Amino acid sequence: MTAKILIVTGDAAESLEVLYPYQRLREEGYDVHIAAPTRKKLQFVVHDFEPGFDTYTEKPGYTWPADLAFSEVDPGDYVALVIPGGRAPEYLRNDPELRKILKSFFDADKPVAQICHGPLLTAAIDSLRGRRVTAYPALELDMQAAGATFQDAEAVVDGTLVSSRAWPDHSRWMREFLTVLRAKAPVT
Q1: Beta bridge partners of 68
Q2: Which end of the chain, N or C, is less surrounded by CB atoms within 10 Å?
Q3: How many helices and strands in the chain, by DSSP H and E?
Q4: The CATH number of the domain where 134 resides is what?
Q5: Has 117 been annotated as catalytic?
Q6: Residues 121, 102: Cα–Cα separation, whole Å
Q7: Residue 140 domain boundaries
Q8: Total structural domains in the chain?
Q9: Are the beta carbons of 120 and 139 closer than 8 angstroms?
């Protein structure tokens, strides 16, 4: 049976931060499922940088169907977890079903890849305390408040947790995550 990876996301997730790992992990031979609060067509967004702006801009991005709702997820069926960024983590961290899923992955020490604002979810379940992470740079204080040591780097690996700042760092993020996956949960 092919090893399965779960991506947890919702509306307003950054398009590239969902679809790049989705396609890269499938290319590697993993079976990848996307879970959201409900089964529906999700509306992703595109974050980009404009001259003269102090922060990123947001535009409508791709739509993509969620394979299953958080309430349908059995974390035991999956070898790893991917947590994209965008604005979705801001509201997803309040979902009790998702918090149970996240806790299960961390309790089992399964590989987790998080990017951009995704670490807001792992902070919500107190899984960053004592760890080294990166995230979108504006979250440095949030990561420190969650008990993590923030590093401004393309990718930071702390055990089975691999974090990254944002979509420009995808190549390094996925290289590091695949190194962890091949050691902990190789494709069968």
Answers
A1: 35
A2: N
A3: 6, 11
A4: 3.40.50.880
A5: yes
A6: 8
A7: 4-185
A8: 1
A9: yes
